[in-house]
Design a protein that fits this description.
The chain is of the alpha/beta class and about 240 residues long. Helix content is about 30%, strand content about 25%. It has helices spanning about 15-25, 65-80, 90-95, 120, 180-185, 190-200, 210-230; strands spanning about 1-5, 25-30, 45-50, 85, 100-115, 130-145, 150-155, 160-165, 170.
Length: about 240
């Protein structure tokens, strides 16, 4: 299995999915866009993973690589390649499919519940997931649904948590890949620290205080999502 990973920040990597990819012996090509890596050809690639970052999808003047990245994501999604976009990656997938990305009413930061929609409960990506699950969130923006997309998950503070476009392209607003070590690293990113400040310290011990205790359950759901997604890599586009 050949997988291309788009990264936008060193601490926004595949997280626990790196272990799963290693176990499967996957051929992983990591593209560090913020470090100046060129986007490779996606010919012969089985799946594209796009992870998070502190930038906005439309900040092309500050981050000129966003334009070719968005074009590559669009090409992959429209040709039927399995695509999974996480947080910024989900927003980029939505933007690549001509849907707007705007500021959410308030940041979602912490270990928070999302609910699968009726469509989500029968979607192959979420097979084996509970109807309601705690997930890691850290975002200030939100995506609209592209034309023809199906809403798969929602939350009270952010209606659009997951969508599917076509058969194999998925955008998630939440982070299924995150480990306790990762959220500690994120606290050092100024844009993320500002989002946490805007939360006003409403959760005793901080918004991620519950992540270590939930790590086993988060990891099990992450593995299930990974298995469901990579199974699509062998299906016809």
């Amino acid at each position: 299995m050949r997988v291309v990973v788009f990264q936008h920040l060193a601490c926004e990597h595949p997280g626990i999915w790196r272990d799963f990819l290693r176990e499967d012996g996957a051929d992983v090509v990591t593209v560090e866009l913020d470090a100046g890596d060129a986007i490779p050809s996606l010919d012969g690639v089985d799946a594209l993973l796009v992870f998070g970052g502190p930038m906005n999808v439309d900040q092309h003047d500050r981050f000129p690589w966003l334009a070719p990245e968005t074009a590559a994501i669009r090409e992959a999604a429209l040709c039927g390649m399995p695509v999974l976009g996480v947080c910024l990656g989900g927003q980029l997938l939505a933007r690549a499919l001509d849907a707007p990305v705007t500021q959410n009413a308030r940041p979602e930061v912490g270990l928070l519940d999302v609910d699968l929609t009726a469509a989500g409960t029968t979607d192959p990506l979420f097979a084996g997931w509970p109807r309601r699950a705690a997930v890691v969130q850290w975002h200030s923006d939100t995506f609209a649904l592209p034309d023809g997309a199906t809403l798969l998950a929602t939350s009270p503070a952010c209606r659009h948590q997951a969508f599917r476009f076509g058969a194999h392209a998925y955008g998630l607003q939440f982070h299924p890949e995150v480990t306790p070590d990762m959220v500690a690293e994120w606290a050092e990113v100024p844009e993320y620290a500002e989002a946490m400040r805007r939360m006003g310290g409403a959760v005793p011990g901080g918004p991620f205080a519950g992540v270590p205790a939930a790590a086993a359950a988060l990891g099990a759901r992450a593995r299930r999502l990974y298995r469901n997604f990579t199974a699509m890599a062998g299906r016809p586009a």
